[in-house]
Amino acid sequence: AENKTSSAKINFESLSGAIRSNASTLENVRQLFRKEKGLNNANNGDVGVDEADRAHLWTKVICGKILEDIEDGSLADSYREWEKKTPATKF
Q1: pTM exceeds 0.85
Q2: 55-82 in b/e burial notation, b at 16+ Cβ within 10 A?
Q3: CA torsion angle 28 34 37 43 (round to 10)
Q4: pLDDT tens digits along 22-56
Q5: CA triplet 6, 12, 15: central angle to 5 degrees?
Q6: Is residue 12 within 8 Å of 28, Cβ to Cβ?
């Protein structure tokens, strides 16, 4: 869910929403992470991100894109094709 302000800046209501939006910035994600998860919480420093959000957070922070864009990209297609053609290696 997104809230638009008059200055065309988008404010996100949740980390989960921000990491799934092309309109969010890394700074949006950082601020929401700090707000929702904290940097030093009571769980011995384990800030834990919901399992459903992990892949989305990783791709947004590392790649600067949303997961769906990465999955739909030509590199991902090439990898899937290569994986189909390459026999599994047993160790």
Answers
A1: no
A2: ebbebbeeeeebbeebeeeeeeeeeeee
A3: 160
A4: 999 999 999 999 888 876 555 555 567 888 999 99
A5: 165
A6: yes
Yes or no: say if 13 and 2 are a contact pair by the CB < 8 Å rule: yes
User: In the numeric block, which tokens belong to residue 51?
Assistant: 């399992």
Gap between the Cα atoms of 85 and 4, Å rounded: 47
C-alpha to C-alpha distance for 48 and 8, rounded to whole angstroms: 32
Q: Residue 57: helix, strand or coil by DSSP?
A: helix
> Hunting for tokens 């638009």 — which residue is that?
4
Give the CA diameter of the chain. 59
Three-state secondary structure call for residue 47: coil
